[in-house]
Design goal:
Layout (H helix, E strand, L loop, with lengths): L1 H9 L3 H6 L1 H7 L4 H8 L4 H4 L4 H38 L1
Helix pairs in contact: 3-4
Amino acid sequence: MSYVLGDVRGMNRHNEVEDYPRETMQAMGLDKEFSDTLLDPEHEDVRGTGSMMYWIGDTLEIRYKTTGVLQGRLKRRITLIREQREREGS
């Protein structure tokens, strides 16, 4: 993840993404849902506290961490189900 964040934050697209955020995010390979979320007028006050490149990196990082948390929960749930089945089968 540090490679991706370093790549995103190191891109020389700060002016592009501020002037043409949706187009720049699309060129970066980010989907419509991602850009719609970041550009939602409801979040304009918060978004104004950092550059668009900051928010792109921050959102990617949060999504990555959330995926790890959900994967951990899923693994624990699978373990519990297997243990329960073993107890019931004994």
